[in-house]
Design brief:
The chain is an alpha/beta fold and 177 residues long. The chain has six helices and nine strands; from the N terminus they run αβαβββαβαβαβαββ. The strands form four sheets. The chain has a three-stranded parallel β-sheet with strand order 5-6-7, with helices on one face. A two-stranded parallel ribbon has the order 1-2.
Length: 177
């Protein structure tokens, strides 16, 4: 989630974005996916997003790659930041019902913290998360399109970070207002 998206989400509730975290795991392969993911993380860092990385493992039965530590990293950071009083209002952008346990713990320990469940476009905030959230909403594709990075994005060092071809908008695309 970019800082721009964080500001857009916060503006709906009259809050100010003080911190944006992206919880992810970079796959080991294939190389093109790994490279694109690393470039995206570099771009996020360049605009002030904190990246918290987990890892992947291969399930021995199915042979499929599984992301690990993402959910627990989100939970730990959300609770720690509540304890440190970093925020008054937290937003969980996820359609993963596993985040309900995080929301339940947050509201149990910090009942005065306001919690908003946010779903990506074409998804819903899970009912289990809604149970503990103070409110919730779904993003639209237009919301995401308003937050597309410039190409190139200028990094912290002043060096340009070019957008990978696979992430380029279609020819003629214009950012929504």
């Amino acid at each position: 989630m970019s800082r721009r998206l964080g500001r857009l989400i916060c503006a709906r509730h009259g809050t100010i974005s003080v911190k944006v975290c992206f919880f992810t795991a970079v796959p080991d392969e294939p190389e093109d996916v790994k490279s694109r993911h690393r470039t995206f993380n570099t771009a996020l860092r360049a605009v002030g997003v904190d990246i918290v990385e987990g890892h992947h493992v291969i399930d021995p039965d199915s042979g499929k790659r599984q992301e690990k530590q993402t959910d627990i990293n989100l939970a730990l950071h959300l609770i720690r930041d509540a304890h440190d009083n970093v925020y008054d209002c937290a937003y969980i952008l996820s359609s993963d019902s596993d985040q309900a346990a995080t929301a339940k713990m947050l509201k149990s320990w910090f009942p005065n913290k306001y919690l908003v469940g946010v779903a990506p476009p074409s998804n819903k905030v899970p009912e289990k998360l809604i149970t503990y959230a103070d409110t919730h909403f779904e993003l639209t594709m237009a919301d995401l399109e308003r937050c597309v990075f410039d190409d190139p994005l200028i990094g912290r060092s002043g060096k340009p970070i070019p957008r990978p071809d696979a992430y380029r908008p279609p020819a003629g695309w214009i950012r929504p207002i």
